[in-house]
Amino acid sequence: MEPRTTPEIGGLGHSVKRKEDPRFIRGQGTYVDDVVLPDMLYLDIVRSPFAHATIKSIDASKALAIPGVAAVITGKDLAQYNLHWMPTLMSDTQMVLPVDKVMYQAQEVAAVLATSRYIAADGIDAVEVDYDPLPVVVDPKKALLPDAPVLRTDKEGKKDNHIWHWEWGDRTATDKTFQEAEVTVKEDIYIPRIHVSSIETCGCVAHFNKVTGKLTVWMTTQAPHAIRTVFALVAGHVGLAEHKIQIISPDIGGGFGGKVPVYPGYVIAVAASVLTGKPVKWIEDRMENLQADSFARDYHMTAELAGKKDGTVTGLRIKTIADHGYTDAAANPSKFPAGLFHICTGSYDLKAAHVEVDGAYTNKPPGGIAYRCSFRVTEAVHAIERITDVMAHEIGMDPAEFRLKNFIKPEQFPYKSALGWEYDSGNYAGALKLAMQKVGYDDLRKEQAEKRAKGELMGIGISSFTEIVGAGPSKHFDILGLKMFDSAEIRVHPTGKVIARFGTKSQGQGHETTYAQIIAEELGIPVADIVVEEGDTDTAPYGLGTYASRSTPVAGAACAIAARKIRDKAKKIAAHLLEAHEDDLDWEPGKFFVKGSPDRAKTIQEISLAAYTNHPPGMEAGLEAVDYYDPPNLTYPFGSYICVVDIDKGTGEVKIRRFVAVDDCGNIINPMIVEGQIHGGLTMGLAPAMYEEIQYDESGNNLNGSFMNYLVPTAVETPRWETDKTCTPSPHHPLGAKGVGESATVGAPAAIVNAVVDALWHLGVRHIDIPITPAKVWKLLREKGVSE
Ligand code: CDP
Q: Which ligand 1 atom lies nearest to the CA of residue 510?
């Protein structure tokens, strides 16, 4: 799309430099740990060495004897106020601090308050806890066996570790496609537990003012308003009413879904501040962060595809066990305990599909957060893109040709999927063909054949994913009953400058720039004249926050509509100033003019001044608007990724030679920011595909609890991403835009696995679970007798 505005105005389509970057690159950002208040206390947390154990006693006397230790808080202290348990966002319950037993290694056991962070750390070492270990359940499949020890003994009458069963689709019709199929394929596919590993860990500063009764919490949250409401609902009985709670999300160093839930540390800090009347700071260290919160995935899937020998797919069946750890603390919309997993029909015209998911409790920290993902979409994409590839290989058809044969065609949109979603728009063949052309697909296939003849291992993998972002239409989407709209409030000052506030909260995505660009597009006011604020519940309009790539589809739409409301009023003022009828006015970015007389014009700045100095009689003064946008549908961005790998037969190392990513997120607000989102997203897709996995031993000990053994890829491991785009606007979004933040993280892993399996299929390898480590590949090569 060609920009309609000049670079000075900087509307849609301009790669405006990020307005937030000067403060970040000069060290002037304000993160939670930068907040320092007079008389502040510091909180540190005693954590359990056991994955499952009874707490026999907690002796705080030695800790309390340390000069500077102000208090030690235990579950029993919180129990006096009924604050030792809290609800999760999925209406399960989670301990704030335990009273009688711990459920995972690194669980919070007690908290120490001290006059410095260092004294608090000394204090936790001095707290003596006597544990009695209990049997540990690590494997979710074993957790669901009848003889497994029941973990949630706090739940009266609970006789197993099953959380919920959820299914979707037409089972009978799907089974019929399998009975009638000429070909069926089936694979067990595991997406391991991974961690978001944001640069900034979680933390907060809680300040309860005993005089005013107001609680202010600076916290690393992606959803400040929802958190405020949850705090008010949970702690209303101790006097914390919603109008006396202010949540401030300052600058955030990466959220990726990990900063949506409420973690016990936040609640303990609030309780500690209410009890002491002093500000309390809690900042996790890196190992606490990596061991105790922000876990994603952990889906054990069995995917089956039915089809014909000519390559037509007919039915899809997926069964999944979801390991949620000891509580279901995912942040899914209430109606969808398995998130939007039922987007698993992907980009294909499947006539029947059925999915089942069972949640299981284990002795692990709560998992299931939507890591750069719209609630289980990564899992869904991985399943369909893997099983599609298996089918193509099984029938001996080129995986690109197989996909092109089965894609939903452009003319089929809006398309109702077998699992009930209405895809808004798409051109899947367009994206795949562009990726094939860019990578030189036909030549690569020839090269692969030549190399294979010489015994060399080269693979080409495709992932043609469809995403579902922008949660969501309020008829289907809520979190704890709060409908998932979002909001924008725009105020134009007399001199034509703007402040705009939003219910979302950027954690690095560049909202201060892109929202300003939307206003610039709609009102013709230069981006430089617009300030964007998010994250303060005292000032921002109510919104559900930023995760699952929902900001552009929802708050971005609210922004455009609020700006249009302002433009409508501006038109009336312009008509008054020009002494013309409204219908006789035309708009071009930045001014209204009389049709046919471009010289008879009023700029938006002149109109702004008039809104406060010379507005028409009977009209309210001022120029501002608010919009709460309830999207009519989700948006369905998509893309086709092609990965080319070479495998070293001596070491099992997989080298990514090329990675071409063609994305389509409809109309783009800022091309540079979108490209940045895709680069970052691809690296976050590479990470689980090749490096990251949180593992536990049989006793529930976390084996990857530091960056020494949890391998986050750096620039050294990251290949050169080659990006391109197609543009298929969303028909229902006011700007034709779709979300993009998570696309690459969702789409990339399958392309990498597909490439590795493509290199090894002729040896009899059908599937490899991620992460594809050199050790895993080398073992396979050895088994197949081709290792060197
Ligand atoms: O909710 P979140 O901000 O994580 O995701 P998003 O809505 O996909 O947006 C990520 C960033 O890309 C934001 O700065 C968006 O404004 C920008 N974007 C864009 O410029 N054009 C699009 N079509 C989609 C997103």
A: 14
